[in-house]
Amino acid sequence: MVTNKIRTIFLELMEWIEKEEYKGYDPYDALNCSFLNKITSFHPLAQQIIIHIIKNLPFNIRPYLGIEKSYNPTAFALFLESYLNYYQITKNSFFLNKCKFFINSLIKMSCINTEKEIGWSRNFKFVTVKEIHNKDTPLTFLNAKVGLSLTKYYKITKNKRILNLIHNIIYTILKYGKIYNTNQGTFIGYAAVKKPRFIFNVNAICAELFLKYIYYVKDKYIDQYNIQNISIDLIETLLMHQNTNGSWIYGYTFDFKELNNIDFHQGFIIDSLLEINKLNLINKSNIEKSYFKGLIFMVKNQIDEKGFFKWRYPQKYPIDIHNQAQGIISLSKYKGKKFDSLLKNIVNYTIKFFWDERKKYFYYQKKLFYTIKIPYIRWSEAWMLYALSELLLHKEYLCAEF
For residues 159 and 108, is the Cβ–Cβ distance under 8 A? Predict the structure, then answer.
């Protein structure tokens, strides 16, 4: 097999992650410091402020605060998909066998695990304007992401045990996220809280998971839930809220105040629409049109020709590794060579400004006057490992040009 720069970086990053034993810090893990959690617990705003102060420091203060490196379930889902992708490229059973470790680890780190349910929360407390996510709070997007990683494993291995696991994930999403039929359409709550946010990428990824499960088991029911009808409603809501320029805002608060940032979540949505379109389970024409319109928005407005992905359209800075990774993922998944030139630009930019050639990991953010070079296991390394695996899987011919 021909070695190229992309494959070399992918394997070096994989080796770095393995040496770290798949553990790491997160940009948002400040409240894992018991002292900071305690002194800011009088108000959610105080907790938000301390999270963002530590997130934006150019140096890593966490070891001095007693914050330890830990496992993150989103990272493990991304590791699982990355190793599966590389197995498909190499046919080396080592990478497929390693996936059993990721699956077993995910099961162990679940916050809910019963005969009928399994679900995950973040490995840190997180506070938003309207929601508090504790370590025992199931998160819909996170659970759906784990579920989708398992569908990829099932597709390759046909392991029936995995279908039962996916069944329990979907049941947990529906039980704790709940279905909300509103005047603005149908949503699943972002988290298991009383008044959750309604987020468009959650609609997309849940619909993708539900429909893939139906595709494999040929059954549209999970207990009393008709997940095919729910998927159709989620998708119709998603298409209804797509802006005329092809973008989606992030979503709404429970009382329908706009959360109007546009960033890497655009990629989450179009990637799910692309996958849904491949299944041929529901009307394709509107989905295909929405996917391409969303992709064109990303290409024309979010990714600069120089190769940087704008922070939150139209704002450039900070240039963030998660955005860079998502640009690589979405353009790699696109079937065709139309955007290959832009894909090369974003890969080159990411390697030039974010890859540490000596330490073998990716930096977090490039701000206007400084770069945060801290490696974050989920936000940076896991997403970039997955992005490079998608690039190698779908555009191997392009990798030879680096």
Answer: no
